[in-house]
Amino acid sequence: MPIISPTQLRAVVTEIVARTPIVDIHTHLYAPAFGDLLLWGVDELLTYHYLVAEVMRRSPIGYDEFWALSTREKANHIWEHLYRQSSPISEAARGVLTALQAVGIDVSSADLEEIRQQFNRWTVEKYVDLVFRKANMEYAVMTNDPFDPRERAVWEQGIPADPRFRAALRIDPLLTDLPRACSMLSELGYSVSPRLDDVACAQVRRFLRVWIDRMDPLYMAVSLPPTFRFPTDDPVRRMLDSCILPVALDREIPLALMIGVKRQANPHLQLAGDSVGKAGTQAIENLCTAYPDNHFLVTMLSREDQHQLCVTARKFRNLMPFGCWWFLNVPSLVREITMERLELLGLRFIPQHSDARILDQLLYKWAHSRKVIAEILVEKYTDLQRTGWPITEETVTRDVRDLFRDNFLRFAARL
Ligand code: RAT
Ligand code: ZN
To answer: How far does the centroid of ligand 1 lie from the alpha carbon of residue 326, in Å?
Structure first.
């Protein structure tokens, strides 16, 4: 393979970053077989909870009045206040325009009705194909919650495998709301007392195994508050020690910990009402030490935790940092965090996930991240070239593939 010259470097790296397919390890998307659970189209894009939070800062509408509107009316309201009365510069607002442009929709008239009409030409199936092709995605990992009755019904009736969507078993109530988890488990035929005695732990393990067999998840996942600690004297420790981690080890699936979310800081905002808090990495360090054979995928929500997470990952090979999550998924912070990770961990981390809730968001979240990642790689390869180190198309292709796909698959024992 010929060595890339300094003058060609930017073009070659940008092209390789664009052409490498993505395995998106955390989304809230669903395969079309899940029916209405798969959200797509301009009204869903505009009513994304990130934009709901933003419109509430600009328009005088009351919370109740806003929530009483239909999706279409909410979209009209957001369009009026965030697009017509102001320039849509925030990451979430700009993202809608990137997504529309990617599927060939002309936004120059700024006319929402006209944009809506342009969606009439697609069926959901056609649109999924188009989005996956344009975003250059290999597959998206869903967030699959066996405690959600709508979703559970789909799994129980059986769905055809769809290679574009893979499962992740989401288990938040087991760790964040044990009394509720126990009552839901009892309704599902697993009698579990909140004391988590040996019988109860066996039932939780059985529940997890049943759902792992049903979903074939790439990992189990939980999102946790900044106050998460391990070990503790409460049943959370037993849930991890005696239920979740033994099953994860036995089935060779990682546990993803998403740490730092303060749920419902403003409940009036509903899904948009969650906030962030600093957590520190002591609990992760303790888990990685106590369970060296378990694999932990970790993302943290606060900017202040990012450096410590990198240092902790240097100490534990069973820890894989992933993604610039939620409020961190803005170009300035993706740049800072990805640079920090490259400098402290080399190429062994997972730089990004989309967290897309609406199919079309794959288009902007990945286009924006790809741009930042390509720029950073150009800077780093330029520094290497200056030492005389040879950079070839083959080495760049391998490195980008590691970042976008193989680091995850290797860590999840799927490669
Ligand atoms: O990013 C989001 O959309 C959040 O609302 C959450 O879903 C978060 O990513 C989570 O998975 O808990
Ligand atoms: Zn999420």
So the answer is: 7
